[in-house]
Amino acid sequence: MLAAGVAVLAFVPTVSHLGPEIGDLPGRPAGTSGAVIGPALTLALCLPLAVRSRWPAVCLLTIGGAFAIGQVLGYPDTFSKVGLLLALYSAGAYLARFRRVVGAVMTVGCVVLAIVLYGLGSPQRFLDYLVFYLLMVVIWLAGSGVRRWRAEQAERERLTAEVATAAGR
Q: In its keyword annotation, does this UniProt entry include Membrane (predicted)?
């Protein structure tokens, strides 16, 4: 439902232009290739959210790649770019294995994206990229906090059931 909701909002004119952005490259002129690539990037930014709890790493890496491609090609902002933030949170909340690997890949990806955008003439500076990266880290940590809280809650419930079983004996 979340993936469908973000996809629909990405095409609603009132909110379609809202979303996170970094780089501030000049907009790409809408041509025949833009009529195909733009909507494809929009869908790639939101449809993977459908599998965010089952395959959080795949979701995050797919959406992160689509976000980076959209920024490098200078496609205009769409609401679907919110999918990056949702995928980061979901990866923090649901990713149990390979957390460090995915985190390292995303960090390297951010650095490479910043270098490429700067090389393409982005007016933003180091501090802008750093703040964007730190915002992504905070969102990831919020998801990690929820994951940790759920694990602690499950452990408390297990211990409560164990104590109740022992008391019943």
A: yes
Residue 26 is classified by DSSP as P
One-letter amino acid for residue 1 of the chain: M
- Report CA-CA distances (Å) from 67 to 51, 133, 152: 17, 14, 34
Quote the CA–CA distance of 91 and 141 in Å, as a whole number.
10
59, 87 in Cβ contact below 8 A? yes
Contact criterion met (CB below 8 Å) for 87 and 143: no
DSSP per-residue string spanning 63-79: HHHHHHHHHHHTPPP-G
- Residue 4 binned pLDDT confidence (cut-offs 50, 70, 90): confident
**Please, what sign has the CA dihedral across residues 83, 125, 23, 67?**
negative
Give the pLDDT confidence of 8-45 residue by residue, as tens digits.
887 777 776 677 777 777 666 555 555 678 888 888 99
Cβ atoms within 10 A of the Cβ of 139, count? 19
pTM (two decimals): 0.81
Amino acid letter, 113: L
Where are the chain's structural domains? 2-168
AA letter at 52: R
